[in-house]
Amino acid sequence: MSEQFEIHAELRQDQGKGASRRLRHENKMPAVVYGAGKEALSLVLSHNEIFHALENEAFYSHIINLHIGKKKEKVLLKALQRHPFKPTLIHADFLRVDAKEALTTHVPIHWVNENSCYGVKSEGGQLSHLKTDLEICCLPKDLPEFIEVDVAGLKLGETIHLSDIKMPANVSILAIMHDENHTHNLGVVTVVKSKAAPAEETAE
């Protein structure tokens, strides 16, 4: 994980909807941090700082250095509430990370060799992405920013399932960790037939 994310926060003193509205007028937003056997803390963040950090996809699946005054906590972004129609953030939840405890989180899938996929290039099919991310389990030090899925050899009608994905060392897909009957071995991408173009009408 080459990226380093730093977010600064203050302890929140006022609670309630009115206080939250005042924060937003000041270009700030409420948040909470919890977990690792410590008490939950209500926080105040700079809206712009976290808004710009979210422009980087890695922020969603990366361990973040959360500065609360002079203290620093290692956390993951667990939930984010956005305004229903304005480009603004409403609230954020952060989970403390313990270096010795396995964590579960979602990481994005990066598709490799889409343009050279056999089923698309040679058989006229089209890729259908069934999932965009994976819920994984690992220690914090092993957390990947994304998981690559190579679709180069995928043929028409074929599907790549969760168990087919080559995972980094010490990283597991949560859905199939204890799935002895393969009931949760879902597909992540498949090649389907392209929709036929409508026939051109014959001119009179």
User: Looking across the biggest beta sheet, what order are the strands in?
Assistant: 1-3-2-6-5-4
Number of helices: 3
The first-level CATH class of the largest domain is given as: Mainly Beta
Q: What pattern of helices and strands is seen along the backbone? A: EHEEHEEEEHEEEEEE
CATH topology of the largest domain: Ribosomal Protein L25, Chain P
Q: State the helicity in percent bands.
A: under 10%
Mean pLDDT: 90
Number of domains: 2
Plain-language structure description:
With 204 residues, this protein is mainly beta. The protein folds into 2 domains: 5-96, Ribosomal Protein L25, Chain P (Beta Barrel), CATH 2.40.240.10; 103-193, RNA Polymerase Alpha Subunit, Chain A, domain 2 (Beta Complex), CATH 2.170.120.20. Helix content is 10%, strand content 42%. The strands form 3 sheets. A 6-stranded mixed β-barrel has the order 1-3-2-6-5-4. A 4-stranded mixed β-sheet has the order 10-7-9-12, with no helix packed on it. Strand 4 (64-68) and strand 5 form a beta hairpin. It is elongated. Mean pLDDT is 90; it is low at 199-204.
What order do the helices and strands come in, and which of them pair?
Layout (H helix, E strand, L loop, with lengths): L4 E7 L5 H9 L2 E8 L2 E9 H7 L10 E5 L2 E12 L6 E8 L6 E10 L5 H4 L3 E5 L3 E6 L8 E4 L8 E3 L10 E2 L13 E7 L11
Parallel strand pairs: 1-4, 2-6, 7-10
Antiparallel strand pairs: 1-3, 2-3, 4-5, 5-6, 7-9, 8-13, 9-12, 11-13
